[in-house]
Amino acid sequence: MNLKNSLHKKNKTLVVIGGGAAGFFCAVNAARMSPHLQVILLERSTKLLSKVKVSGGGRCNVTHALFDITEMSKRYPRGDKFVKKSLHHFFTTDTIEWFEQRGVKLKTEKDGRMFPVSDSSQSVIDCLMNEANLYGVEIKMNSEVRSMRYENSEVISMRYGNSEERSMKYEKSEVRSMRYEDGKFLINLSNNIILNSDYVCIASGGAPKTSMFQWLVDLGHTISEPVPSLFTFNLHSAKPGSAKHPITELMGVSVEKARVKIEGTKLAEEGPVLITHWGLSGPAVLKLSAWGARELAAVDYLFKVHVNWLPEENANSLKEKFRNFRFSESNKKILNHNFGKLPNRLWQFLLEQSDIHADMRFADLPAKKENILINNLVDYTAEVKGKTTFKEEFVTAGGINLSEVDVNTMMSRKIKNLFFAGEVLDVDGITGGFNFQHAWTSGWIAAKTISFLSPDNESICDVE
Ligand SMILES: Cc1cc2nc3c(=O)[nH]c(=O)nc-3n(C[C@H](O)[C@H](O)[C@H](O)COP(=O)(O)OP(=O)(O)OC[C@H]3O[C@@H](n4cnc5c(N)ncnc54)[C@H](O)[C@@H]3O)c2cc1C
Predict the structure, then answer these.
(1) What ligand 1 atom has the least distance to the C-alpha of 189?
(2) What is the pTM of this model?
(3) Nearest protein CA to atom 21 of ligand 1, as residue
(4) Which of these, 88, 133, 269, 443, could form a disulfide with 26 (CB 3.0-4.6 Å)?
């Protein structure tokens, strides 16, 4: 049953632009909180919630099991201070409760990511669609917003001494009170339809090019230049004529914990590293790509990476170990003594790269080769040339400048009754559910503010 349409006459209209996580969360919450508000959701494509559908390998990584706001905010390379404030309004605990109250129970994986117990993103989609139906959100697909403008507020009528309400165009008399009408948004759609609305929430997501934000710039907002975040590193072969870096032969090999650093920067991360067809991936690399999104774009993705495959060790500690092995394991083949518990293929590769043949024993290891091996173990260096999108999972760093949005309301500081939510803002998180949490939080705050601003009756302002 459509509760809202059946029971309430609508006074004001909210248009939400974008049928993703943030747009839906704003629309369904605003419609529920404000029964008299007409809520229209515009989506340019033929698909709703398409990223929710594919995220987390089709399971939807709804949020992250972190319950400390300061800690949580540290997972956002851009917008951490903004998020630290917004999370006070709607936190991970609220997300968990919101979905659970609507029949979508979440579970936590070992690494903290939270998924629906059904292991299917469809549960999240069904939940949001049910809410939209229940509270009468009108969804319009194939409706791309091309431009928008705001018509300023004006006095539309006055109350005269004889209490009779008349248009201002008519006779003048003593004015006792005035009825204001806030401005209206005129929204131009690609199909030439023009909508007007009292409130607008822009939840149109990220975009790879600045030009795609032009319609928001035309509104008077400024954009922090978009650059990709969350990508893997393509390694470049130093050998002339060889396109592929030799380590890519180990494609599929992963190391549980390695430390990856980017030369000439402070960027360093520790965690699982995966060797791929093109180079390096895995959580440590993806986190680096997020933290370094701007720096790495500035050098056109040409930089050197240093990997410590044994992050608990350094050159000195390994030297000590090798010295001991020369006595205790002198007759053992180095190849069979993978003391660092590295994957065997990687150990073998690092020996080959250090020119240590398969039969060499610890007793026969020349000091020079030992040094090279130690270097390859704790400071393996490779050149990165380019990037690859991680499983089509990308996030845009950049978007609406945060100084132009009030974090406690999500309202534009430039245009009254205009709101923003989700990835369109200059906020992005590392992988693990942080981007969705920002979408839920900002969508909810915008909904709450709009519901507060749209009382059931239009306001009558007394003239002083
Ligand atoms: C493959 C993939 C996997 C991901 N996995 C995860 C994950 O596991 N965990 C996590 O936290 N994050 C993940 N992310 C990131 C996360 O999906 C996004 O940060 C989040 O979906 C952003 O939500 P949004 O509503 O702001 O934007 P979007 O989901 O991008 O939605 C914006 C919508 O607006 C529409 N739109 C744009 N412009 C207009 C216009 N002018 N008029 C009308 N409609 C318009 C778009 O078509 C789109 O449907 C993933 C991203 C991808 C691509």
Answers:
(1) 42
(2) 0.87
(3) 51
(4) 443
Nearest C-alpha neighbor of 166 from the set 391, 79, 174: 174
Strand partners, 385: 302
How much of the chain, in percent, has pLDDT values that exceed 90?
77
Ligand 1: which residue has its CA nearest to atom 30? Answer: 205
Chain mean pLDDT for the chain: 89
Question: Which residue CA neighbors atom 3 of ligand 1 most closely?
Answer: 55
**Is the shortest distance between the CB of 443 and ligand 1 below 6 Å?**
no
Residue 328 lies in a domain: yes
Ligand 1 near 144 CB (within 6 A) = yes
Q: Rounded to whole angstroms, how far apart are CA atoms 185 and 194?
A: 10
Let me know whether 93 and 192 are in one domain: yes
Q: What's residue 456's pLDDT?
A: 63
Helix, strand and coil percent figures for the chain, each rounded to 5:
35, 30, 35
264 and 404 assigned to the same domain? no
The residue ranking higher by pLDDT, 174 or 276, is: 276
- Of ligand 1's listed atoms, the one at least distance from the Cα of 42 is 43
Q: Name the β-bridge partners of 387.
A: 233
The helix-helix angle for 434-453 and 21-33 (nearest 10°) equals 30
Provide mean pLDDT across the span 132-137. 98
> Range of 291's domain?
231-392
Mutate which of 86, 144, 204 for ligand 1 pocket (most atoms within 8 A of beta carbon): 204
